[in-house]
Amino acid sequence: MAFLYGEKPANFPLVARYAISRFSRIAPAYLTVVLASYLIYNLIDPHFVYAISHDNLLRHLLFSGNVSALWSIPPEVQFYVVFVGIWFSLRAFRTNSNVTLMVAVLGTILMLIAYRAHLPGTFVGSKIHYFLAGVVFGLVRTRVGASVNMTTLAVLQAAVIGLVLGVIEGVVDVHLGSKRELYLTLETAGFAGIFVFLFSFDTGLSKRLLGNRLMMLSGECIFSMYLLNIPIIYAALVVMDGLPPRPALALPIIASTIAAAWTMYRLIEMPGNTLLRRLGTWLLLRPSKAPVVPRRSRPPDRY
């Protein structure tokens, strides 16, 4: 978001377009999954992995639930609001050299980072270091021109991939701890920012890895893929009826996830996005009608 909006002036029309864009991007797929999960859990399968009941339905509809993979949605939505404060602080600093708002925003973020281990996992403060890394590298990316050495970047990209593979294979001994400890670590936030920053450049390597048709299709429906992968794995385990998982099932499950995600992207995300954008634009950005000033009648000519 810092890459897309950080250099733009912060005013009501742009902030309204930003809010409309962010909400319309996640709301259709997310709300569809929440409502479908509620029906499945209460009417079909009481063991469904997204256990949305009468007690927590409202929380999830308000983007504040914590069931399974849906826990990550609240911090993301909350950061959409936090970013507006960062955006206005950048504007104040650039236009008026006013550092007051910038100091207030950075001070608040640093305080949240210091106490992140004591904050709920669904609160943006517990993951603020990841978002801050994204903002910093996004702003840096806006200042990097086309003259950057792509060969050097390709070497760095290959090195980062090698490091990740080394950690996965156990060649590089990195103790990541529990999932909660992983999310609390500052080093992983910094590494994630560096990784995304490096692969934002179109080197020969990144084009081969990310520019192929399968990866581009996956990128289009990545949010639906994130929401659906766990239910699809759960459904596969139910079909297997207690049999141990087999590696041979990985490919069919991946293919099913991509197919289901693409279908939801085409049938729900895209139409929902268009509808919400139009509705948001009509509510927030429709031009106000100028008041009609009554014309004075012209006095008759005198001869």
Keywords:
single chain; 303 residues; mainly alpha; Acyltransferase_3
Summarize this entry quickly.
It is built from 13 helices and no strands. The chain has helices at residues 2-5, 12-44, 57-61, 73-96, 100-114, 128-143, 150-169, 179-184, 186-198, 204-210, 213-220, 222-240, 250-284.
What are the SSEs and their pairings?
Elements (H helix, E strand, L loop, with lengths): L1 H4 L6 H33 L12 H5 L11 H24 L3 H15 L13 H16 L6 H20 L9 H6 L1 H13 L5 H7 L2 H8 L1 H19 L9 H35 L19
Can you tell me about this structure?
With 303 residues, the protein is mostly helical. The chain has one domain (2-284). It has helices at residues 2-5, 12-44, 57-61, 73-96, 100-114, 128-143, 150-169, 179-184, 186-198, 204-210, 213-220, 222-240, 250-284. Helix 12 (222-240) packs antiparallel against helix 13. The chain is globular. The termini are far apart. Keywords: Acyltransferase, Membrane, Transferase, Transmembrane, Transmembrane helix. Residues 15-266 form the Acyltransferase domain. It comes from Xanthomonas populi. It holds the Pfam family Acyl_transf_3. This is Acyltransferase.
How much helix, percentage-wise, in residues? 55-70%
N→C terminal distance: 71 Å
Low-confidence stretches: none
Radius of gyration: 24 Å
The strand count comes to 0
Number of helices: 13
Biggest sheet layout: none
How many domains make up the coordinates? 1
Order of helices and strands: HHHHHHHHHHHHH
Class inferred from helices and paired strands: mainly alpha
Shape: globular
Strand content: under 5%
Question: Which whole number gives the mean pLDDT?
Answer: 89
Protein name: Acyltransferase
GO molecular function: acyltransferase activity, transferring groups other than amino-acyl groups
Keywords: Acyltransferase, Membrane, Transferase, Transmembrane, Transmembrane helix
Domain Acyltransferase: 15-266
